[in-house]
Amino acid sequence: MNGDFFLGAAVASILTKLALRYSENAANQSRRNAFTAEAMFVIVSIIHLGKSGLPKRPMTDDDLDRMQLCLKVLSEKAPALIHVFEEDCRRSLAALLAVKQKEEKEIEKKTKKFVATIQADDPLLFPHLSGRSDFSNSEDMFETSLSQAVGHGGKKDTYDLASSKLNKVAQLTGFSDPIYAEAYVHVNQFDILLDLLMVNQTDDVLQNVTLELATLGDLKLVEKPSPITMAPHDFANIKASVKVASTENGVIFGNIVYDLKSGVSDRNCVYLSNIQVDIMDYIIPASCTDLEFRQMWAEFEWENKVAVNASVNDLRAFLNYLVKSTNMKCLTPDKALSGDCGFLAANLYAKSIFGEEALANVSLERTTDSHGPTITGHVRIRAKSQGLALSMGEKITSAQKNAGKEFAAKARAEE
After folding, report:
1. In Å, how far are 179, 197, 205, 209 from 258, measured between CA atoms?
2. Most buried of 23, 186, 227, 264, CB within 10 angstroms?
3. 359 beta partners
4. Distance CA 51, CA 71 (A)
C-alpha cells in the first residue's frame, strides 16, 4: 500500500517467466492454461490496485507498461517474445551483474591498495618557498630532467599558480571611473572570500571610502568593511567574507561610496558590476545504487525539465560533455551506453558540500534537419530544494548553448 509498484512489475515478470517455463515442461494442457490464467489474474489485480487510488503513491507509467507487456506475452505466447523473456533477459542480467562486480572490484582496489609515494628518507620540499616549476611532490627532478634531455620525457606542465588566480579575478568598475576596483573571488567550501583591490584614479584625496555589498540568494555578508582614506593615485586592499548556506546560484552586488576632501559634493558613488556565484563550486560527483536512486526520485518533490536542442552528432560525446559541465556522475554502465541506435538514456547523480542531492534523467535522440545533425530530448532534474533544481537547469541550458561551438572547434582541430 506504500505505492512501490516497481516490486509489482518485478513480480509480474517473475510470474510470466514461471508460466512460460511451466508451459514448456507440463504435459497437461488444462493445467498449463490454468497456471497461465492464474498468473494473469495476479498481474491484473496489481494493475487494478495501482489505478484504484488506494496506495500512497500512484503507479508509474513504466511499471504499468511492464505489466501490460507481461499480459501480452502470456496471452499471445509469440516465439519472439518468449525468446526475449527466457534468453535475452538472462543475458542482460548476467552482463549487468558482471559490470557491477567489476566496478566493486575497482573500488575495492582503490580503497585497499596503499602505495607509499614518499619514503622516510626523501628530502623535504617546501612549496611556499619555491615555484611550481622548481619542485615536484611525486617525481625525482634529476631523473625527470635526464629523461627529457634524452627525449623520453613528456611535455612539462606549464601550469602557474598566478595564472589560475587571474582566471578568478572579476573586474567590478571601468577604467574611466574615479575608483577602479577588481576582486579575486576565492571559494572555500562554506565561505566566499572577496579580496578587493581599489585604485584611486583621481588627483584628490578620497575620504570615508566605504565598500557596501549586498547579496541575492542564500548568501549572507559576515561583516561590513571599515571605511578608509585614499591618497591621490593610491591603492588599497579590502577583504570581505560571505557565508553560503545552500547550493544555489547567488549574486553579490554593491557600490563604493566616498567623500571628497574639497567638499564639492556631499557623497559620491561608484556602482560595481555583479559577481555571479557559480553553483559548480559546491557540486561534487557521487554514486548511489539503483534502488537508492529510484527511492530518491520518488521522494524529491522539485522537478525541473530542461529541453535539449544542440547541433551535435555524437550522443555519447554530448552526454560526457553534460557530465563534465555539471560535475555529475553517470550511473548508467558503459555497456548500457555502448552501440549506436540514435537514442540514449542515462541517470546522473551528484551531491553538494552541504549534503544536498541532485538527480538527473537524460533522454536524448539524434535527428537530422535542414541544419544538419541535431540532438533533441530533455533532461529531468529532481532535488529536495527548488533552488538546486533551478540552478542545475540553468547550468545545463548554458552548457548546451556552447556545445555546438565547442564540438565544431574540436572537429576543426582534429582535421
Report:
1. 10, 15, 10, 4
2. 23
3. 349, 382
4. 16
